[in-house]
Design goal:
The chain is mainly beta. It has 1 helix and 11 strands. A hairpin with a 4-residue loop joins strand 4 and strand 5.
Length: about 140
Amino acid sequence: MSKTANYNQRFQDVGFTVKSVKGKKLEQLIGAEDPDNPERGPVSIFLKLENANWSEYYFDVCFGTWGDYETKKWEEVEIHEEDYSYHDYAEKFGVKSLIVKSAYCKDNEITLEFENNEKLVFRYKNPDDWDSDYEMVKLP
């Protein structure tokens, strides 16, 4: 069993900007889903950018949360294989190797914006219900 890397929470707020992602190429984007109820959408998103450690973002009630692991190795990221299935969202949404322009949380959405102006938005399916399911959508 491999060692789990330390996790450092950087943001937990209704609004924030992650400045450290600008100009970096997306290597991997992993969505954690409940395998028994995949229609509920992802509960957490894991992000790996070129020359950077793994990051994770998710919602905690109404707060967007973003943190970084002290590792570049997926094997050292804390995951819960018994509870979730992990899916390649970079492939699913066609964003692998795109350059990130910005990442931010605003209005109960966490957005990755790319230099080609496409956006991936992680949000509540019902923005008025903080207990609702989540979804990841690609916007042109």
